[in-house]
Records
---
Amino acid sequence: MNLLPLVLALLTVYLVWGSTYLAIRVAVLGMPPFLMAGLRFLVASLILIGIGALLRQPWPSRKEIAWASLVGLFLLLGGNGLVVWAEQFIPSSLAALLIASMPLWSLAFEAAMPKGDRPGLLGSMGIALGFLGVITLFWPTLASGDAHSLWAQAMVIAGTMIWALGTMIARRVPLPRSGLLNSGFTMFSAGLAFLLVSLAFGEPTKVRWAEIPMDTWIALAYLIVFGSCVGFSAFAWLNRNAPANLTATYAYVNPVIAVILGFLILAEPVTAWTVAGSALIILSVGLVIRGGKLKTPPPASPAHPGHSRLA
């Protein structure tokens, strides 16, 4: 595999997605969470599908669109949606740090599948160490008995499990050959679903559009262009072309960036528990990379060689 696109895709996911937790926190403070997410993914999907059509990318079959739509419901509505909801109640840095449990569920699901990748001893140690880091982050809330914050943190963990399941599904089903259209249709289904959930909760009737602060609109624009169009397309390419354990390391790197940005921009607290949990998580990265089986997943369908195209 050519290392340049791999490195570029990893850096994009590391840096861009590391900053989206801060953007989500700013956005949900000024706009209802599901309405914000619906607008984000629907607009981003139309941009990507439009660019794909203009570039005459291979148009997907109905089956491919259906699978991409299902993957979008797992990754974005279920995985990202719970995180967006939770960030109304917990700091962006804490939400990002809790996402570090994702590789635990991702590799567990992979190992449970027939012929799935199974980590070696070092990889297993890394997963265990990362999980210990998550428990360390949970501990202050458990000790304080703050049920509301604990519930929000539990929803973040549930979201990571749903995201991991969606990632596993995406590796095994026929998706659009075009990276642009794959990401576009994945987000389109999620965007519509988010808006339906928003309507069910009556969010649009509670919004005073003229009173939404400018920083909310800026955060939403950043999430659309960078978090969705750029970041998610890079992730979709990695999910198809990079080893599962290597792709999963973004969940370890993103929190470090999120903690730094949350502290510098929103003055979010960085406690001794935060430092300890982060250190355990970062240390686990090396073990996961060195101890995992670096096997590149095959395309879901041999008839679709274009799956490896970077969006």
Note: Residues 294-311 have pLDDT under 50 and may be disordered.
---
Amino acid sequence: MRVTHGSITPGSSRLALTIGNFDGVHRGHQAMLERTVARARALRLPACVLTFEPHPREFFTPATAPARLTRLRDKLELMAAAGVSRVHVARFDARLAALAAERFVEDLVAHDLRAAWLLVGRDFRFGARRAGDYALLERLAGVHDFELEAMPEVALQGERVSSSAVRAALAAGDLAAAQRLLGRPFAMSGRVAHGEKLGRELGFPTANVVLRRRPALAGIFVVECQLEGETQWRPGVASVGRRPTVNPTAAPLLEAHLLDYAGDLYRRHLHVRFLQKLRDERKYDDVPALRAAIAGDAAQARNYFSKKTNA
């Protein structure tokens, strides 16, 4: 899959295009990608996604922006797996935020990406002050010679599948509901950084991943971890939070302890998928109490995987 950023040099081929933030790449997003890829094949055109970084709400209201479900790297990997040929990542900045709706379509959709076919939801809004809507796209499709299609809503058990619904399930600790909406376990990933070796001193060494944005969940979890360059998933237990008992952190931290693993994880990319919430994060009175709690978490994780193996 080809990924482009910044300014675009129009290619020789027109594109089958869809547009959105695709945060989480949930079942609704997957349906959009599947439809785009299918239509691209029928038209014998590349399937392209136009997405934005950062999320527009992170640009306008960073303090109150929703928790990010998917890092850009993971989002791109999921799009590639769906069969997308190209993704253009447009930087959402003051210039793009001020671009009039008509110019958004003329400049990005028609000229730069040369869309021959476009798929969006009927609630799609675009351009300065979100002035552009589906009715405007219908009018501009004729002006700029592209076919427009509306993506119907995707519902699951009577609930509209959305990034907001996924966030609500994760905030409530309902990993099963999040998995139903996503079509896979919720996951986080990142590069393992040097920590303060606190986990090792407690007898439970951890792989530490600094989270640059507010996570969608918090607490202690049963997890599976996959190391860069490996195919197997290793059982583990992880915490997401600020480590309130000893050396609290200013930024949220993902700390994963891989059960029965003694290798060096530093600087390796770690993919962590969340299977069950054990408890909320809490502040303990002293280090022995913290150590006992972590031992209990590890024992619960082992019991989870033992039951899973024997099921």
Note: The longest strand covers residues 269-279.
